[in-house]
Amino acid sequence: MSRPIRVRFAPSPTGPLHIGGVRTALFNYLFAKKHGGVFYLRVEDTDQNRFVPGAEAYILEALEWLGIAPDETVGKNEKFGPYRQSERKHLYKEYADQLIQSGWAYYAFDSAEDLDQLRKNEEEQGKTFIYNHGNREQLDNSLTNSAEKTAQRIANGEEYVIRFKTPVNEILHLNDMIRGEVKFDTNLLDDKVLFKGDGMPTYHLANIVDDHLMETSHVIRGEEWLPSMPLHVLLYRAFNWEAPEFAHLPLILKPVGNGKLSKRDGDKLGFPVFPLEWKDPSSGEISSGYREKGFLPEAVINFLALLGWSSGTDQELFTLDELVNSFDLGRVHKAGAKFDPEKNKWFNHQYFQRADDTKLAHQLSHVLVEKGINKPIEFVTEVVRLVKERATFASELWDLSEFFFLAPTSYDEKAAKNWKPETAELMEKLIGILENTLDFSTENVENTVKTWMTENEIGMGKIMQPLRLSLVGSLKGPHLFDIISMIGKEETITRIRKAIASLK
Ligand code: GLU
Hints:
The protein is mainly alpha-helical. It has 5 domains: about 5-75 and about 205-250, HUPs (Rossmann fold, 3-Layer(aba) Sandwich), CATH 3.40.50.620; about 90-195, Glutamyl-tRNA Synthetase, domain 3 (Alpha-Beta Complex); about 265-350, Glutamyl-tRNA Synthetase, domain 2, CATH 1.10.1160; about 355-405; about 415-500, Arc Repressor Mutant, subunit A. About 45% of the residues lie in helices and about 10% in strands. The protein has a 3-stranded antiparallel sheet with strand order 3-4-7. The longest helix is centred in the last third of the chain and has 23 residues, at about 480-500. The protein is elongated and about 110 Å long. It starts with 5 loop residues before the first strand and ends with a helix. Pfam families: Anticodon_2 (PF19269), tRNA-synt_1c (PF00749). Belongs to the class-I aminoacyl-tRNA synthetase family. Glutamate--tRNA ligase type 1 subfamily.
């Protein structure tokens, strides 16, 4: 029977959300929306030792910024709440007990010191210690203690954990929606702790109980969780619950070399691995974020979507809606996906070109205000329109447009060398032409100046380069007559005069 689609993103708030985690959230979101289902976020904060203040708020803010906020989560449509595992603590013990009763789990009293010693002994012989069917009948647990003794020890307040009793001699043939059939030999699994001495469930128990109670239909998560899949499937069997479908997403790989993308790669090559800037509450260390670097959320969504998924066409640019329409878990690759910071910038450049000019103008206006420049927003918007094709980030707008607002204070040395002895005279003549020009629209000034040049057989280079140098201070910038039209007659002439005086 097919059930309603409900998928989840289940981060542990142990720090800022890594970009790989964002990709997991995105694929869950896309899958949910594509199938008219629900995307919810559950906070897996049962490990109190690893709890980091601010991390939960950070995760939600990041998804909000990217436009992929969950439909249900802490404080939002809490139909299956609470959505924080720490607030569901009271729930899990009962399920652990259920497994004890049905013989799927057992109490274990082995102290940390005892287990450490066993581990050491095995290591000395070049082996690894696994707590499982091979030795559980010799260790200190409810399988080797009588029922009375076990009850007594628990009543005495002795510390214990609850372990899963993994079935023996079984090859599990499991289905992963991305990988197809995956096989696991139960004899190689360890009897994982489900419930700890501190009264808290471990990730495995809490995750399965909640996925069941919250009616999760599909578990879409990173490849690093694939080894947990057999235990999870066995837990569903032990509880007699219908298991969700599983899909394990490919790793995100370093831009160069092999291995998983890490924060250190980002530090080394100068790109963020987090969606938003993060300040570590204990060390104060700041990690850069895509948002603060000036990336547009659409660009981040787009490059993340293509990390491990392809539409099967040549299309590279996808809006979120288009992604929802084309997304298909069947087209997610098994192989890891290489992170490409340069390509990410290319995506930002594409979306930057599509960004609303007025919105960008407001951003540029902030810079102008800081510099004490006051210009109407219409003017700033026009400036943005003229220079944006050269920009990838809003932060580049000022450098690309400074000359629209301020006269140059110096001149590019190399370009200034081309200021010939006769240039001043030609520029004086040009001033005369400009003074007599009434209509200062781009087209009209361009026509007037070019006609004058043609009629007097003055070569283009003789005028255009010195003119640009006078107005901009270098040979860069957009169409020269656009600049002239924007700054106006008076300012144009003033700048040419200044250049004549300075560049003798
Ligand atoms: N809390 C786990 C994590 O931090 C969730 C893994 C899963 O999706 O099952 O990624």
